[in-house]
Amino acid sequence: MKKIGLLSDTHSYLDDAVFKHFDGCDEVWHAGDFGSLEIVEKLSTFKPFKGVYGNIDGKDIRVSCPEHQRFSCEGVDVWMTHIGGYPGRYSPLVKPEIMINPPKLFICGHSHILKVQFDPKLQLLHLNPGAAGKHGWHKVRTLMRFVIDGDKIEKLEVIELGER
Fold first, then answer.
1. 55-74 pLDDT per residue, tens
2. What does 105-137 look like in DSSP terms, one character per residue?
3. Cα–Cα dist 50/2, whole Å
4. Which of 8, 35, 75, 115 qualifies as a cystine partner to 31, CB 3.0-4.6 A?
5. Distance of alpha carbon 160 from alpha carbon 130, whole angstroms
6. For residue 124, what are the β-bridge partners?
């Protein structure tokens, strides 16, 4: 069993509350648009860390974080990318692969819209944690926590950090 802390779109701002909310997590995952390498460094020294770069991230972040990460966590096939789209409207960059070989858990950021959606056609769970930073048009900064236990994704929590 692993408890995961998930965030995205920090845009160079990392609220200290993130560390409080993710203290009991086994791993922290970031779905892109860090904004600065300092965010990558703070998260990766805090907990075991996985991250993908976003469209605003420079070469320094792209060296340490790939565009896509596909990995197994417990018994769950996970695919994390920054720009992925939504069930029924996947990004052209991921659509061919996702249609042929869908993961069980598909994570993306980019939209700043917190979303949890099951894709019945592909039998996958789509998560977008919204935006944890202060830059963008979102009104409330958000994070997610969840548990992967064997092949189950459960105990999903949405955490509001306050207004942008």
1. 999 999 999 999 999 999 99
2. EEE--SS--EEEEEETTTTEEEEEE---SSSSS
3. 14
4. 8
5. 10
6. 119
